[in-house]
Q: What sequence folds into this?
């Protein structure tokens, strides 16, 4: 079987830079108008993944702070596939390595 010619390619992607992460997260959460949709005391799951999100601890902390300010009770759950051995305990350890802890 003949294969087509292949070439090695290098791709460089310059990701966007967010200078004030806390303000950016708060701005995006405000856009969701959660105050009109959340009942006081609502328990809200906030997912934490493992796919290279820069500043994930700050993002999750700010998200939880915003939800608390709205009267909700946020809690973090791991949202990964096979990382951390595909167990909740292992995934919590992955999040802890990123600085995400209770």
A:
């Amino acid at each position: 079987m003949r294969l087509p010619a292949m070439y090695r390619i290098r791709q460089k992607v310059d990701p966007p830079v967010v200078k004030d992460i806390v303000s950016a997260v708060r701005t995006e959460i405000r856009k969701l108008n959660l105050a009109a949709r959340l009942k006081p005391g609502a328990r809200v799951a906030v997912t934490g993944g493992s796919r290279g999100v820069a500043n994930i601890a700050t993002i999750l902390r700010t998200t939880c702070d915003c939800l608390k300010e709205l009267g909700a009770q946020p809690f973090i759950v791991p949202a990964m596939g096979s990382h951390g051995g595909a167990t909740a305990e292992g995934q919590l350890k992955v999040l802890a390595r990123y600085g995400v802890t209770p």
